[in-house]
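The instructor's notes for this session suggest beginning with a concrete chain rather than abstract definitions. Hand out the sequence below and ask the class to guess, before any prediction is shown, which regions might be ordered.
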Amino acid sequence: MFAPSDHTFALCAYGASPYLETCIKSLLDQTVKTNILISTSTPNDEITKLSQRYGIPLYVNEGAPGICHDWNCAMDHCSTPLITIAHQDDVYLPQYAENVLQMMGRAERPLIFFSDYGEIRDGQPCDDNRLLRIKRLLLSPLRIKRFATSKLVRRRVLSCGSAICCPSVTMCVPNLPHPVFVSSMKSNLDWEAWERLSKLEGSFMYCDKILMRHRIHEGSETSALIRDDTRTSEDLAMLEKFWPRPIARLMNRAYAAGQKSNSL
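After discussion, reveal the predicted structure:
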């Protein structure tokens, strides 16, 4: 079993996000109170003020900013076995931490927990669209308890696309390699990590409740990577980890068309 003291939201703050305070409030509003810290490679007055206003410890990373570096630094600032890398633009619904502790506590050897999610578009919640339905379909086998430990099922799920929403993931650090993130990818850093973790003994704990919402907006890193085709090239590299190149290329064409719904 895990106690609330065993979990930390490591909130990655970058630049000057107008949504950072909303994310902080969502973490403070959890039904089960766990630890929260802010990690940044771009310290500024706004981040410092919010840290002080809400009494949240602030850590400034050393080294050059970068997604892989920033995420690993955020994890290194934590001292708990369970870590959620919270994204500054997103919001977590009140029962997120409660479900993490319950489901991770039931697993004999948990690797990661992740949940269903919704989106925020134009400031409004959006919990049902074509992309979300496809991702829920891909993840549906993991709703079956015995498949949580199946390497074959996990890899089949991941082979069809990046269906796991990164900010919905909580990692059980003692059961994972260090560092968790090792790729130079910008868009698919998380998919690459889950692909490696899918080969390990242990459980992928999937909660099919919507427990967080991912914000889609023009200034997001995801939207920028889609516009400059970084996402498309990285998707192909990931698909080739599962499929022969000709099949991977065909799948990537269809995948690229679906990216339009993940940007504004």
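Then share the key points. The beta strands are 7-13, 35-40, 58-60, 82-87, 91-92, 110-121, 124-126, 170-172, 203-216. The chain has one domain: 4-262.
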